[in-house]
Amino acid sequence: MTVHQVGARPVPAPPRPSASRAATALLGLVAALAAAVALSLAVGANTLPPSAVWEALTGHGTTETDYIVLGLRVPRTVAAIVAGSALGVAGALIQAFTRNPLADPGILGVNAGAAFAVAMGVAFLGLRSSSAFVWLAFLGALVVTVAVYLIGSSGRGPADPIRLTLAGVALGAVFSGITTGMTLSDPDAFDSMRSWNAGSVLGRGFDVIVPLVPFVIAGILLAFVLTPGLNALALGDDVARAQGANVAGIRIGVIVAVTLLAGTATALAGPISFVGLMVPHIVRWLFGPDQRVIVPLSAVLAPVLVLLSDVLGRVIIAPAEVPVGIVTAFVGAPVLIALARRRKASTL
Amino acid sequence: MPSRRPRPRVLFLAAVSAVLVLTGCAAKTTPAESSGSEAATTRKVEHARGTTQVPADPERVVALEPLELDTAVALGVTPVGAAVASNVTGVPGYLGVSGVKPVGTVPEPDLEAIAALKPDLILGTEARHSALYDQLNSIAPTVFIATHADPWRDNAALIAEALGRADEVRALLGAVDDRCEKLANQYDVAGKTVQLIRPRDETTLSLYGPVSFAGSLLECVGFSIPDRDWADGLQADLSPENILDATADHVFVTTIDVHDKSTIPTAIARNAGAFGSVTLVDTSYWISGVGPRGAQSVLDDIETFLEETH
Predict the structure, then answer these.
(1) For the complex shown, is ipTM > 0.85?
(2) Does the N-terminal peptide bond of residue A158 adopt cis geometry, omega within 30 degrees of 0?
């Protein structure tokens, strides 16, 4: 007997790389992360011998090595891991959510909102250091994303990705314009915002990193919960509904997770460009479209990239440094061009 | 405000204009030269953008560079308008002048505001305002120094020439030298090292070298700034990891509030043991107050410091 299906396309199951392949990749990435952490502790603008680094880590350092290793390199390494993981997962979510391979966590206005809040802090509260910017930036990111959501979902029906993206881009442009205007009119005061704006993980102590970690953990856990729903959404709203997925619920969950993750990353390290765009792209390109693979692998690959970029930034113009955000842009642009030139660049 | 490296061509122009300034000064003292019929109302000034006819005695001057504002004020020609480092702070307080209208920021002067002041002379900087020259020159005769990275005394001399006060500026620069010499004789600091550190942000501390404005003033009273790989002798950037390369007998750190000890960078505070003597100094004249007036303000601070420590 032959059964003909009429009116509905057969649902293609996501091409599933064998679970063992993804697990091997995850193990490999964790090893790479460990190596990147070691590099980040050992290499810097000051060429300390590895033995001096080890002595500082084991509590036998001098005042100088204690300051360099424990005071600078350890906290910046932790900040790079936290911000990197958050950006990688946020990028994966936002690309799946908008079904746009070029979407970046900043598309919902997170970066523009954080930068605007920081600019207000500089202009009206006299804040001058990146650690003082953290909570203000986080608040700015949250407020603007909520505003984007309200604008994007007003009128008929639930918020759909296109309207949210438009609202995010529009509101982001407005806030960026105001921020730029403020910066230009008082360049002296905004000197302190410069490195924040470029994206840097240096100078963030544990007093500002630790309170942000729960937000990142919550965001990543939420992302893991959402991955099966995102796989369903990739097939289109109707098919997803037919499969029993709660489309509106998944969308709100994604927005919450992206806001938590990108908001924390931006608050902690400033708007580090390209990481959230590039990492999920690379993962999808290598391992296919299954979000259950993309999300965890992005969470590990992104901090590797941020750490390696940060290390590069410390050595290329030693004895001075380049902020990590500038390095990721330099690394990211060629990767993006390479991706764009491949015909099979991972589509969504 | 990152300082730019002057390109060789700019340096060449600067050298040429410095020579022209010197010959201009010499020519002006010859009475026979100034007997021309038009000499009473205008003068010719050679500068980074060629030769410009400027009023013999300019009254409504607009200055687009801190050095030009400072020099004009020091010469007794208070500009009607000036580009400022910050629209919020406005015209720097150390100058002690009022009634100077801010006309945009130094990197982005506001042409409409400049035109509204109906100036008779505009002073600018080729390295910053090159693209604006023709528009500025259509508002009023415009004289450009080549770059703010050149030795400030040469730039001040060109500005004085444009203002018709070449002799006066020699006296002002001479007064700076005399004061340096007096302080150098009064306090024996020979062999003592100093560092002038400008904290930029978390990743960068800028050290200022012997050719920089305040660096040259620290050296002229007898201090020495340890040699390093300066960009143009002016400045060298340092990661906080290398802060111990910036130790010296006395360290001066620039800040917007000299009473706020929290503006000492963490890198220095955490290594207090290696930094015996740290003094906060005002960015508005130590870094931005380039010119004869600013030089006296910096020397005031240095004199106070020497009185207290020696």
Answers:
(1) no
(2) no
